[in-house]
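Open question from group meeting: does this chain pack into something compact, or does most of it stay loose? Before anyone orders reagents, we agreed to write out a predicted structure and look at it together. Recording both the input and the output here so the notebook holds the full record.
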Amino acid sequence: MDKQQEYVLRSVEERDIRFIRLWFTDVLGILKSVAIAPAELENAFAEGIGFDGSAVEGLTRVYEADMLAIPDPTTYQVLPWRGDRQGAARMFCDIHLPDGEAALSDPRQVLKRTLDKASEQGFTFYTHPEIEFYLFKPLEEGKLPRPVDQAGYFDNVPRGTAHEFRRTAITTLEEMGISVEFSHHEAGPGQNEIDLRYADALTTADNIMTFRTAIKEVALEQGLYASFMPKPLANAPGSGMHTHLSLFEGDRNAFHDPAAEFGLSTVARQFMAGLLAHAPEITAVTNQHVNSYKRLWGGAEAPSYVCWGSNNRSALVRIPIHKPTKGQSARVEYRAIDSAANPYLAFSVILAAGLKGIKEGYELPDGAEDDVWELSAAERKAMGYEPLPSSLAEAVGVMEKSELVAETLGESVFDFFLRNKREEWTAYRSQVTPFELERYLGVL
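Structure tokens returned:
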């Protein structure tokens, strides 16, 4: 037993933890949980906890159902909302087969495999998400959701519901070791944003899954409802998860070159070129729901066209320039991903696209200097700004032909994801009118 496992066992005893929740996600990014008693924890570390993998979306087929959840002791944290006495803690798990092999269909393992490929090239992948979500008053059957306020971007609302909510939510997150950079009210009524600090991509993905749970728990405690739906209100901005990206070689930011334009190295430019070249292929993963495309094609600074720009929030890939002289802060921002994505799979395909750009020496096209939404269709075409997929069906069609996504996700995840998203689109079409399809998605 290693020192981290010993620490967890000691902490469970000293803090009177009665339940240890073992967390993992299915292919769609839905959090799964199994609770064990403290007496079973040492055995869980040694042998894992057996479960029926065929009952979890996308993990395995019914005739090969037995799987093991192996807790990662480095992810141990006490759950603050369960109280100080006889509390609960959580650990994320890696999913294995009975023979000890890592399950190829486990989203956390998919990300680990992609991070290993980056490591083979000498890179560590860091991410920093800006997570947007809506706060609603208690939902009432048959009525539209009601935002908790009518405030806007950066508005300060003394004693406002959202202000107090963010205070409690951030305290909860930090008690779990999740560092928050800053928070504020976003542009939509009842819309909020909380930004997590930079961390390696695996830690960030675990933190995002914890973040969603913590936000919903705090909302329920305050009699509210929190939604990570990409576009919950037709006439208000959607909720994205703009994510800042960088590669490090040891302690050096591989994206930084003080002598280059915007301070971005050749590695950074090739990484950006990879993101742009493969953006349509990965969109079904970074934007996995029908509702995601109402955000992407709903205006309000949502990116709809494949282009990049310096300090240009209408571009798909943006170069933030808040601290141009700080080399360690050199990064790029990918703006398509939304708050409902599976972060393990989304980070995997984003990293794979960037790494391919580096490996094959992709050339970065000219940047966008104008508001891309304000340009005419002819102007965008002349400048080479191709549109992102306009619907989930289109995104799945593009993804289906992508060798990069198939190789990154692995056969089982790739096939299940395609099948599930086709079913989601088919179900959606059967429930809406032709007017809605044409008006909101541009398709019939």
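Observations to bring back to the group:
The first strand starts at residue 17 and ends at 25.
DSSP finds 13 helices and 16 strands in the chain.
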